[in-house]
Structures are given as structure tokens and as C-alpha cells.
């Protein structure tokens, strides 16, 4: 029988991940801030509990996928948090994109309680979560990893191990800085092409035959050309990750001027009302600026 697993946070990614775990045979206990967001997961066979602490009491491993560092601290060590229910020797694996300082602090707190904390942020979107092909950055002790390896491998096709949780946190922020830079490069190229009376599809075709190509350019580029900004990753979440990366890099003396430029565009996209659209909607800001 597989280890009982808990899951906190049933947004776009969390819901897809929980359905994946159910399909691979895990018994799931779940909680999310807005219960109605978990209806599909509950219909698929997960069991609802009223707090993270109650989920932890009924699980040997608790996974979480939540919005930000503050929310992680609340579900971990708040009045009804995971630490109030997690059994000694059990593991909390957070898979969100949060500040390295937060994961470092939580790892120490869990250790003092005789429990384990792993940070395993993911690279990928809803389709990858659905089919178990996420890329996982796993930071934590070997002892803790041994307890959760099989669960994580049901969610991801590749994983990379890091000695400390905060190292995994930093790696995720580095990767998301690439995402921010790539979407700015792609969208400004499309806007430029349109203003120069060049079909943006021709740009994508040329990229596809060059060393400049990427899967992201092709999939996002086609969606943008079709006017499809259905969210896979919200503008507001990209902005949050940019700001986390700038803060974390600044603490260790790393300058990221390209990311600072992206930050301004995503800030403007939020002001302009695109916060809950796909992060590619930053193109709308560039179009307005080019008009």
C-alpha cells in the first residue's frame, strides 16, 4: 500500500498535481483556502480536511503548492498549520516558488520539531503536472528525500538534488528569470514584426529553423498570434517571482539588469489590469507603448 499523502493548495498547478497522484494510486487528503477550487479533486477521490494541521495528522507526507512565501509560512506554522499535525519523522515538501530565506528558516524549524522540510519547486505548467513530466529541484537531506522519492517521481520526469532547501529555491528563481526574459524577448519581437508589416508567423518559422528556437517560443508565439491569453501562469505570479529573484540575487551581490527591465513591464501589465491573464499578456503593454 502506498504512503498516505496530503496536499495543500488546489490552484491551477495544485489541482493538476493532485489528480496525477490519485491516478498513480495514492490516497490523498487535501485542503485549500477556497474549498470550491477543490471540487474536481474531491470528485476524483481525494478526502477533504478543514485545515493543514488535519491534513498532516492523516498523512505521512504533505505536499504544498501555494501562492507566495507568506502563505507558505501560514500553512506551515500558523495556528492550524502543518507543524501542529505532522508526526515526528514525517515530511513536508513544498513545491511553490518562494523566497530562499523562507525555505531555509522552515527547514530549521521542522528539524527542531523532529520533522523534515524539503523544498522541491517545479519547472513546467499544467500539462506537465497532468502527465507527470514536471522538472523537480529537490533541496533537503538524504534521509528526507528517501521518504518522498517515489511520490516526487510520480510527478516529474527529471529531478535534481540539492543539499539544502534554499539552494533549490534559488535554482527555481534562476529558471523563472529565464522565463521572464524569454517572454519579453518573444513579445517585443512579435510587436516589432507587426509594426514593420511582417507576419509574426514568419518570425516563428525562421526561429524554428535556427539555433535561436525554443519550444516556449513556438507554443507561446502561436497562442499570442491567435490572441489566446488563457492563463497557464498569471502575470501577477510572474511579477512576484521576478521580485523574489531580484531580492535573493541582491542579497548575494548579483546584479540582474535584464530582469529589472522585465520587472517594469510586468508592473505596468498589472497596473493595466492584466494581472490574472497569462504572463504573455505583457505583450499588450508593449503594443500600447508602440502605438
Description:
There is one protein chain. Helix 8 packs across helix 12 (257-271), helix 11 (235-251) runs antiparallel to helix 12 (257-271) and helix 12 (257-271) packs across helix 13. With 291 residues, the chain is α/β, with parallel strands linked by helices. It is built from 13 helices and nine strands. The protein is 54% helix and 13% strand. The chain has helices spanning 12-23, 39-43, 52-57, 69-77, 100-112, 126-131, 142-155, 165-195, 200-208, 215-225, 235-251, 257-271, 282-290; strands at 5-8, 28-31, 47-48, 61-64, 91-94, 116-119, 122-123, 134-139, 156-162. Strand 1 (5-8), helix 1 (12-23) and strand 2 form a beta-alpha-beta unit. The chain has a six-stranded parallel beta sheet with strand order 3-2-1-4-5-6. It has a three-stranded mixed beta sheet with strand order 7-8-9. The mean pLDDT is 96.
